[in-house]
User: Fold these one by one.
Assistant:
Number 1:
Amino acid sequence: MMKKLLIIKLGGAAITDKKSLKTAKTDIIKKIAEQIKILHEQKYKIIIVHGAGSFGHILANEYGFNGEDNLNLNENMGLGVSKIRNSVQKLNQIILDIFDDYNIKSYSIPVSSNILKMGKLDGKLEFFNLFNLALENNLIPITYGDICLNDGIEKFKIISGDYIMEELVKKIDGEKYVIFGSNVDGYYEYNDGEKNIIHKIKFSEIDKIIKNKFDEDYIDVTGGIKGKLRSISNLGKHVNQVDLINLEKDNAILDLIDENIELKTTFTK
Ligand code: IP8
């Protein structure tokens, strides 16, 4: 039987300590590696996209890449681009090294090796073929939120892992299962001071939720949970289901695949 392609986002908050510059949660990354290894052995095709966490957002803020259009270019920004790119590459290397310890066949594909066209990844790019080719050869492509050179008014642009997820889902063929891993048990709201996980949300309801109040992480230059919900809403145009789970929990990915997980948010048509 053909196995689905799993496209898994490792959220920055799950794999790094977002408050502490360049601090990876290696224990969590090891837990994830264990599960990826098992799923790959079970013949799932897998693409990994990881966030930048404290290797990207803190520096991005410091150098003025705050989510607004970066039209007011100053000399410092070039230095920022260099430092941010270096730093997210370092996080990628930490993940690759841990995956390597588990003999996971990963293949790193950084988006910053592409020129963006008007702030977007160009659909015609060989870039996406690399993912297909890696998958065909039983490798696990791994990419991440990054800072890229841009052919447009803005010279540099931060590309979030969530946006990459959207593009991958559009451009990679086959049946896909999309998983967003975070450090929370799902999407939650506070009712009378109590935190409540919303277990099921329709893609069509997301716009309404975005207009409501929710937790916003101020150092997240790519929009925090709001940006994530927007991406999930866009993904709803291409897939039937997206699951949001807590990667800090042991075996969260395996339990989700085995339909043996209680706390999660499932987004559906
Ligand atoms: O953590 C952001 O990617 P994200 C990338 O997936 C940078 O939103 C460089 C801040």
Number 2:
Amino acid sequence: MGRIVTIIGTRPEIIKMAPVVKALDGLRHEHTLVHSGQHYDLMMDRVFFKDMALRAPDVQLELKEQPPHLQVARTAMQAASVAAKADLVVVHGDTNTTLAGALLGNKLGKPVAHVEAGIRSFDRTMPEEINRILTDQVSRLLFAPTETARANLAAENVRDGVHVVGNSVIDALLHHLEAAKSSKVLKRLRLEPGRFAVLTFHRAENVHAADRLKRVLQSMGAIAARHGLTVVFPIHPRTEKMAKQFGLSSLLKAPGMKVIPPTGYLDMLELERNAALVFTDSGGLQEESCYFHVPCVTLRENTERPETLQIGANVLAGTDPPRILEAAEKQLVAKREWPNPYGDGTTGPRIAAIVERFLG
Ligand code: UD1
Ligand code: UDP
């Protein structure tokens, strides 16, 4: 019997790893779930364990409000004794928790498995891009969501141990879609299907730049006015803090804007499914809106989800109001017929089967 140690710590890791953790729990190996504590608010963390019916972590670490370098250093320190007993360390995605787990596994001489390997924005100013590249370089098992991701890895000379398995975002979504349909979020927010847009915006490079944050918020007010859409904005705590700090809080109260606290997963799926448009700088929302055939406008200059652009589900609009308005016009009339590039929702079991073979 082998020992698997899975390390997670943020909202998207909890959501997308829930199906993988459950599949790994089903193996005959010992499986320890470690939470770094990178996200810690009820609505950024615990709510997802409840919504996803995910067991509590075996090991809960604490990070609260650490700067990025200490998020990595402290996670590695705190998780060291658990990871030292592992036969495989599993991490997901591109966060500071991901990098900490991957480096820790590598320094301990343990094989590392990376879920969502190989995606690239080719923008090294993003902390996530550095986290992804470094994690992939030290991983033995690389679970790539698409052939594009596999090709990105090959271009960096990473060829062994790569498995294209789809993205567990689809597993999570399919497991919870029926429950999401019972969400009362539309009623609670007095929203009509197709008459609102969903906005999420939290990337460090976007919200720490006052001009970008301001222009995006101004664009949303303009979209609400021009298209008669309510813009529902579940606001990330980082964004809320920065809007206050930059004196932009009045833009959050513009007519047509509905700013709400971060939502649980089921409410979010129900909002996305019924939206006319999604505006976002989130990776997960680009994928989920694509699955729902809801057009997406990505408020960035690049994306590590190019599949969504190629099929017309998504367009890049940056943070300039004229481009955002133009992209919204285009996407509002988009033919919603694209295929889903992220797999059939069996990523969790496929990963577990490969891990089983690996551990023998
Ligand atoms: C992190 C990830 C990002 C991911 C996002 C998911 C990195 C480099 N970035 O960004 O890739 O898209 O998580 O949401 O790891 N905060 C709270 N409560 C919380 C969590 C955060 O108040 O529960 C506030 C704190 O002020 C914190 C700030 O948000 O300092 C940023 O949090 P952090 O986890 O460092 O980065 P995210 O922006 O969440
Ligand atoms: N999400 C959520 N409530 C919110 C915002 C996001 O449940 O208020 C979910 C969303 O459906 C997706 C995931 O969180 O599954 C995306 O996480 P996030 O945008 O924080 O990170 P990213 O995907 O950019 O790494």
Number 3:
Amino acid sequence: MKRTRIAHVLAEGQPGETHQVCGWVRTRRDSKQGFSFIELNDGSSMQGLQIVVDADVPGFEEIHKLITTGASLRLVGKLQESPGKGQRVEMVASEIELYGTADADTYPLQKKRHSFEFLREIAHLRPRTNTFGAITRVRNILSAGIHEFFQTRGFQYIQTPVITTSDCEGAGEMFQVTTLNLERIAQIQTEIDFNQDFFGRKASLTVSGQLEAEIFACAIGECYTFGPTFRAENSNTTRHLAEFWMIEPEMPFYDLNDNMELAEEFIQFLMKAVLEKAPDDMQFFNDRIENTVLETVKQIAETPFERVPYTEAIEILTSSGEKFEYPVKWGNDLQSEHERFLTEKHFKKPIILFDYPRTIKPFYMRCNDDGKTVRAMDVLVPRIGEIIGGSQREERLDVLENRMRECDLNPDDYWWYLDLRRFGTVPHSGFGLGFERIVQLVTGMQNIRDCIPFPRTPKNAAF
Ligand code: ATP
Ligand code: MN
């Protein structure tokens, strides 16, 4: 007999049907009449299946006491209408098999609530909790939604390298990749000769797939990457990971307005996808994690985003009368507190800031005629702040070369990138969406470390 996932039984199972289900015990309650109620969960849905096991089910008596929270079971039984509240059907078992026990004294996930800090220490077990089951399912819906969004719009999915020899963001916050025996070298010489290294030069883990994505955009048209990126920034915040996933669409013949339109449509599409495909999980987040999350996600899905030039945002911030920890000044990057004030308190909806000072943005953004700003755009949303960073790219060869020198980069190192401007250059644009930040947005989770299966942060790469 084939196994049925519990989500399917709960949604479509009819009284009288026989099913086989497998999963982990959440609770067992014994009745005085000699039968037990088992709530079984297999991760396919928030809700578990209620199963009634009579004392005369073959083998039940022997294993009865071993059926504790966390134990794994296989059951076969007939569905019947449930007299209890909260579920449409329940199962009456005719067959039961115990796969594995979970000792009640040592299994860490007992019925009580655990702190997210504690659960991070048992990241191999936390997927079995309601919260992490829901996060995982929502993450999956978002992944599928991302591909659906781009695939239905004719974008090609491309894979860009994880190991790279260029620093796209120019921030120098990269993890080095080497096969050199650094301990030995440290003993015998003072300088490292990277010619001897695996790639014959200094290599790192990528911070962004953008530069390579541009190569493909300027050949096959609209494309996107969706892969891991790495940043060795030593920022212990609730919004930064050392390893995170990024979605980076790149579009030829798009100017900054086209880019902003796409970003807005993309985020709204993802909000609608989770509302439509994970209503139970979303209700759970709203009830148990953050009681504004449903309202926020619905509002983002429906409200047009406000578009505001950076310079205007600075004026709003300086005349707001609000006390900020970090000073607001034209030319400074906005801090999370500034971003959140603008989106949560001032505009009360998502906003797209554009035309940032060139001194705080990377070399590849298109320079405006004012000589001071570049065609950058950041999408800011309530609770998170920046969720997308993007720009129209600089397509003029001479301007780009000058910008590289201005950013202390050697144009010779980027000869292939410059060739895109040398041969058949076109106006083009793109952006990067942090995948875990969007998971954080829709789940209402406080900390981004709980929005990825196995977080990597300073001093932490367990599991
Ligand atoms: P921030 O100012 O928040 O540190 P950034 O400006 O350095 O972000 P970008 O280089 O613009 O980030 O990257 C594009 C997107 O990737 C960001 O808008 C954000 O959603 C996400 N992102 C950037 N850094 C991280 C990180 N360390 N952890 C998780 N997501 C990140
Ligand atoms: Mn950014």
Number 4:
Amino acid sequence: METLIPTINRLQEVFLTVGAEIIQLPQIVVVGSQSSGKSSVLESLVGRDFLPRGSGIVTRRPLVLQLINVPPLQERLKIENGNGVKQNAQNSFPGVKAEEWGTFLHCKNQIFTDFQEICREIEAETERSSGSNKGISPEPIHLKIFSPKVLNLTLVDLPGITKVPVGDQPEDIEAQVQGMILSFISNPNSLILAVSPANSDLATSDALKLAREVDPDGRRTLLVISKLDLMDAGTDALEVLLGRVIPVRLGIIGVVNRSQHDINTQKSLEDSMRDEQAFLQRHYPSLASRAGSRYLAKTLSRLLMHHIRDCLPELKTRVTVLSAQYQARLNSYGQPVEDHSATLLQIVTKFASDYCNTIEGTARHIQTSELCGGARICYIFHETFGRTLQSIDPLGGLTELDILTAIRNATGPRPALFVPEVSFELLVKRQIKRLEEPSLRCVELVHEELQRIIQHCSSFSTQELLRFPKLHDSIVEVVTGLLRKRLPIANEMVHNLVAIELAYVNTKHPDFTDAAQVSASVNSQQAEASDGGKRWKNDKVGEEKAPATGFGSPSKGQAINLLDTAVPVSRKLSAKEQRDCEVIQRLIKCYFLIVRKSIQDSVPKTVMHFLVNFVKEHLQSELVGQLYKQPLLQELLIESQDTAQQRIEVAQMLEALKKANNIISEIRETHLW
Ligand code: GDP
Ligand code: MG
């Protein structure tokens, strides 16, 4: 069993470097009511007098006591005088020329070889944080005891359970102490040493009650019956020790500690243990080999090792999980920059390809919450832009009067027989112009999306970029600049697309000629058939209804309003005017649809060619051209302070975890329990 001690020590060493809150060390916690003998039990386990003991509240802060087995001084001196090759936890205090010594966490460099002094330091440190008048504090004192006489154990001495506040103690002292005790024993990695004096009824034991609360199955509770020597004459604890009163799974061990009188007369621990053994032989001969302080120490050591063994698989998993987490974090920080130009090229290339992939839809980080990249551009083309065009009324904003005025203006002074073509051209151009605004808006939307992809790529895909804030900003700047440069070009092209349509109204367009002819012929037929009466009648109506406007009867109206060139607000149209209007409307509609179709088709193509594809193709070279400049490299690749520091810390942690993992594996392999 002792062969495991060095391994446990190593394990503890590693755990300390890894941090106690990450890996919980199995430890033994002493619980019991005030003056039940907790400190005395601990002291006999250590084999030295050093804990403040006595009646009333003495232990007022938790004391975390780590016992560390060291070779006797002679042996240590030999190792040190030898080549000093053998390095392990046991000779980590090479300078100490004492057989046994202690150190406190709160005064790290001080070595206490006088155990009386340790006792005084505990008292002083207790007073430092909890006052001199019986106050308590949950802040533990950490003490390490190095000795050849101890087994490797970590023990926690706690203030006893009290009921009535005394001195400076607060009203809720009972609850406070219970909370403190529970915080230690609820740690599933602790063994609970419930101390109950033999001279009080076990059924009233507060220690057992608290232990049951956190360990109902009794898997980690050991019962210590103290003060066997103080039982009333004629009674003994045999029934209790045999577990017949209250069974305790891990066992019940009776002990006899030193009485206050023994302490006062400075009875040595050796004498006390001898007397204890003699007492047990006398009163409990059948149990003598399974009772007493020595047996308690061995039992505890064994339980602790079993406990460690039981914890190993879980510890291993935790170390593995933590390692993976830290490894991932380390990877995310990347390697420290050695070759600046290569790193810059690599990051720029990755950014450029991420950018293109997001447009192409081949990116690895596909978003599911909203459309982005190429998909959004597609949406802009076909939904936003397409729908807007579709919703434009070919004759929108064009009243019959507008048409009529245009016809009349086009015919000049002569009354025309046929609908003048000039007026059609004039009017259809006016409609075509209306396609420009939504087309330019389409360019703008795509431009915005391309801008958004920059953010998307720099935060999502190119994790590395976060390391180099300057480079990140520069990349954003360059891409934004490139987009800004291309925007007016794309706009110009789209503007031209509409301008081209306006430049020449192609009435010989194959889709148009048929429609034009049909509507023209239909109209002339209609005109012939319905001429005469209808026209006369309509003229009459017009004449009657609109004399004041001067637009109805050509002879009278013109005579009256010779100088009035304003377009009349409304009036009834003549049949011919009506027909002319209809013809023009039909032609406009027909031609407009042709142009709209072509614009709807060519604007996306233009945007793709002049903006999207251009940026895609030139992004990489633009980035390299602007950023890959020798004097810039160093500056661009300055890591953020945090990253550099975090990388070091994470690497150290990872190293410690690896060591812990090795030790765990070692224990599992070499010791088949
Ligand atoms: P704690 O408050 O639980 O830490 O108890 P202490 O260890 O301070 O002991 C309280 C008092 O009981 C001290 O005066 C001890 O000497 C005494 N005491 C503890 N254990 C025994 C024992 O087994 N026998 C006798 N006779 N006295 C004991
Ligand atoms: Mg005590």
